[in-house]
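User: Before I run my own analysis I want an independent prediction to cross-check against. Here's the chain; please return only the C-alpha cells and, at the end, one sentence I can use as a sanity check.
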Amino acid sequence: MMGYILLLALIGLCSAQSRLGSYNLDSTATVSGLSSGAYMANQFHVAHSGKVTGAAIFAGGPYYCALGNALTASTTCMKIPSAIGLLAIRTYTQTAANTGFIDPLSNLGRGRVFIFSGTKDSVLIQGVAKKLQEFYTGYISSASIKTVYNVAAEHGMPTDSYGGTCGILNDVYINNCNYNGAYEALNHLYGGLQKPSSSAGQSGQLILFDQSEFFNLAPAITYGMDSAGYIYVPSACASGTRCRLHIAFHGCLQGREKVGDTFARYAGYNQVADLNNFIILYPQARTILTNPNGCWDWWGYTGIAYATNDSFQITGVDRMMRRTQGLY
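Assistant: C-alpha cells:
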C-alpha cells in the first residue's frame, strides 16, 4: 500500500504548476521542520524573528551548529552533542544580529518554541535536540519552550494516523506513533486549537505552485531548490476568511523529487489547518551535486550566508511567505 501511494505521489510530479496566490493572512507566521527541515526552520526563525513568532523543531539541533562545515554537520550536529560549542554559536549569532544579517535577537523573546526528539532516534540523538533547547533558553523564557522527549519514535515526523511503525526507520520518514505531532506543535505555538480526530480527512486543496519565480539571480535548482512547492488551503481560507500561515519544511529524502506530495499530504498539518483556519506552505528543496539527499542547507552548500537573511534559500522562502500575505 505504501509503495502504491508513493507511485501516485510521484506521478503527481507531472501536474501543472500554479502561480502562488495571496490570501487574507495575519502579518506574522510560524515555522516547523523535520531533520534538515528542523535546522532550516530554526534558521528561518532566527533570521526573521521580527515576523516569525514561533518554531516547532522535530529532530533538530541549534542554530549554526555546523559552523559552515559539512563534516561537522554529519557528525557533531547529529550524534556528538558534547562537541557542540554553544559559546561559539552564540558569538556568531550575536555578531550576525549586530551586523543586520539576522533580525534583532530581542524579537525571539516574544515567541514560542516546540522541540520533539524521539527516544529511539538513531539519526539525530536526543542530546543534540537538548542543545537546541539550551540555545533557545538564552533568548526565550523556559515557560515558552515545550519539549517532548518521551515518545518511543525513530527519526521521522510523528503522526497518529499515517506512516511506518513508530520506533522503526522507514523510507518516507513519517511515523505512526499515536501522537499528533503537527497538532501538538501548532497548539503550543498558538494555543486553544481544535484537535482533529485520527480519522479526519482533508477538505481543503493541496496546490502545486511554481517556486522558480522566487529566485531572481539563477534557476531555483542552482540553490538546491525544486521548481515547484506545495501549499494547502482550507476552503474557508480560499473563501476569504482571515487565516494564519505556517511554513513546514520537509527533511532530507522527503522532498517532492523523492516522494511527491507524501510529506505535504500526510505529515498531519492539513487536518489541523482545516479545523483552525491555517494555510500551510510546504517549500521544496531538491538534490544537486553538493546535496545528494535533497536536504535544506544548514551547513553551507549554497554559500557562507546560508543561515542568515542573505541566504538564497531563506530569501526565496521569505518571498513565498510574503506572496501568500499579499506583500510580494
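Sanity check: Residues 2-13+22-324 form one domain.
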